[in-house]
Write a structure and sequence with these properties.
With 443 residues, the protein is mainly alpha-helical. The chain is built from 17 helices and six strands.
């Protein structure tokens, strides 16, 4: 009699609970990719994706999603996950995780009011210093035939041959070829309209750079998103959506990171080949431009290729987004903040210290050389007025277009310098504020 009463009470309790909690089901389109390889986290991270957005999950949450088919009960899921992981897990634990972790993240089917409740999870923010105003130019299926061929440029013998040729080219161009570079500079000075060709070389090489990232993803048999165009800070840039890169091991991720600069140097080889065929020195400026762009890409403090190379070497995806969790983890008893391995923790702290110095550096440069910089910028800008007037008086449309492009780049450099100083001030202030909060909480 008592057993029947207990069964009746438990049945009534199950009826009171929402079915989406008692029989959780993954949302349609959710992909489970397994453990995230080669990370610097102290605890294992498991990867899932939904509509191009990736989620790093704990093993328990991942295993619950594996079993969440809408038919298996929470009680059965608890038993199966506990058996798989070898650690205790009650049915109430599963229900709580489904309701307070998976549902707010939109990973299980549930009432709209619950899924959109902003209290459990903060609203999504744009990553710090990210590309804005993105516009897709080339969809993956459009460029698939091209990247399918370009991926063979990552075949090891071709890579070694290309790197050898690139080395020989740079030894020559900055020694014996310096005279030809001087001829190219004089030609550009006396015929400013050739700036249009230089601009076309830079544009083409930058686009080919993005094909390098896409081809490296194809080489790793990993899907990628479109090649697009956006605005980084204030500069127009190309980009390649390689978000699925987190599925790959570190060595393959690094190949994707370096693939763009590798292709940029292949473009430099192409410009050098045009010089050998034609003897026209202006093609050599394409090599110099490629070098300048690659040096810029190696910057590890903005979201260029060097930033992602450093992130993959550390095993910490998107380090700038981990600043706040890392500072919180400095407390004596961290509760769920960023947990890194000891070596990674020390390296990451060193990186943040260098970031702080880097963004303080403009103040020192401004105090020492501010007058000279402002004077040079002003003198350069003042020269565009007579140049426009001369091009207009001569009716030379090519010269007018060349001067216009130079003016646009000058204007972007001025705005970029102002924005860089402002970003340095904002980020430095934020770092000091967060460090102070972490210190006061620790004490």
């Amino acid at each position: 009699m008592a057993a029947n009463v207990l069964r009746t009470l438990h049945a009534a309790e199950r009826e009171e609970r929402p079915r989406w909690i008692e029989y959780p089901a993954r949302v349609s389109g959710l992909e489970l990719h397994g453990p995230m390889p080669d990370t610097g986290f102290d605890r294992e991270q498991w990867l899932a994706s939904l509509n191009g957005r990736y989620f790093a999950l704990t093993p328990i949450l991942y295993r619950i999603l594996e079993q969440a088919d809408g038919v298996t009960s929470a009680e059965a899921i608890a038993a199966q996950v506990a058996c798989t992981l070898g650690q205790p897990l009650t049915v109430d634990d599963v229900r709580w995780l489904v309701e307070h972790r998976l549902a707010p993240a939109g990973l299980v089917r549930c009432p709209t009011a619950v899924a959109s409740d902003p209290r459990p999870e903060p609203s999504r923010r744009k990553p710090l210093l990210s590309i804005r105003a993105r516009v897709s130019l080339l969809r993956p299926e459009w460029i698939a035939p091209v990247t399918n061929l370009l991926q063979y440029l990552f075949w090891r013998p071709i890579v070694f041959l290309s790197l050898g040729l690139i080395t020989v080219l740079h030894v020559w161009i900055y020694t014996a070829g310096s005279a030809a570079l001087g001829d190219a500079s004089r030609l550009l000075f006396f015929e400013p309209r050739w700036i249009l060709l230089v601009f076309a070389m830079e544009l083409g090489a930058s686009l080919f750079h993005e094909f390098g990232h896409a081809a490296a993803m194809r080489r790793a048999r990993c899907p990628h998103g479109p090649i697009g165009f956006g605005v980084y800070l204030i500069w127009p840039v190309f980009y390649t959506d390689v978000t699925p890169i987190y599925r790959l091991r570190r060595s393959k991720r690094l190949r994707v990171d370096l693939g763009g600069m590798y292709f940029h140097q292949l473009a430099a080889l192409g410009f050098a080949g045009l010089y050998l065929v034609s003897g026209w020195p202006l093609w050599l400026l394409g090599v110099v431009i490629a070098d300048v762009q690659c040096l810029r890409q190696l910057n590890p403090f903005f979201r260029f290729d060097g930033y992602y190379i450093l992130a993959d070497l550390l095993g910490v995806p998107d380090p700038l987004s981990q600043i706040k969790p890392f500072l919180r983890s400095l407390r004596r008893r961290p509760t769920g903040q960023l947990q890194l391995r000891r070596t990674t923790r020390l390296l990451f702290a060193g990186y943040l210290a260098i970031v702080a110095v880097y963004f303080v550096l403009p103040y020192a440069i401004g105090l020492e050389y501010g007058d000279d910089i402002v004077r040079t910028v002003w003198t350069t800008g003042a020269g565009f007025g007579p140049a426009f007037a001369q091009a207009w008086a001569q009716g030379d449309l090519l010269l007018l277009a060349a001067v216009s492009i130079q003016f646009v780049f000058w204007l972007l450099s001025v705005l970029g310098l102002m924005l860089f100083v402002w970003s340095a001030f904002s980020l430095t202030t934020a770092l000091v504020k967060r460090a102070w909060q972490a210190f006061t909480s620790h004490s």
